[in-house]
Design a protein that fits this description.
alpha+beta, Nuclear Transport Factor 2, Chain: A, 7 helices, disordered N terminus
Length: 212
Amino acid sequence: MLQRSVRSPLAIGALFLSVLFCAATPRDAAAQDQGATAFIQNMGTQGLQALSGPEPQRVARFRQMFDSNFDVPGISRFVLGQYANSMAPEQQQEFAGLFRDYIAHAYSTRLAPYAGAPFRVTGARPNGGETVVSSEVTRPGGQPTRIDWHVMNNGGRHVVTDVNVDGVSMKITQRSEFAAIIQRNGGQPQALLAALRQQIGQSGAGSSTPRR
């Protein structure tokens, strides 16, 4: 009875498909990890090189990299959280532009000391529908800084959905900071827009956190 069951066409077909699935899945995951790894190695190296030079050029290059390689719409929605629904369409549009400028100013300043430093990818692992690519960058005479990049394949194009620097998430940090500004101002999202306008206007004054 057992022999007949295994040799039946249905059983053989099911066995074949299960073996094929088990064999194909690791290869697909490996290919996805390799693509994400190459994407991050290239972007990280170019990004650190772009951080040299005068501040206006650094900011412009960082914003271009942010627009080209990050999931800006998804990140913008996440950092606004529940307050996105309280914004009028024109306010959401203004926030998108301000957020890009704020990130460009803040992170080009924070990462400027690493300009030209060695950058290397140290590993990759699947994380749901994304790949987390781990990397290290080391300042001269300093300890390595670990950077984990969350990478999504968006229709054949790799984009970064979050960056963790030494375990601190960019998305979660910005969401917390922005929510605190709005809460301190009676829950009015327009207070965040005003704070971002002020911070961008004062870029170069030193602080990278909007205050209101």
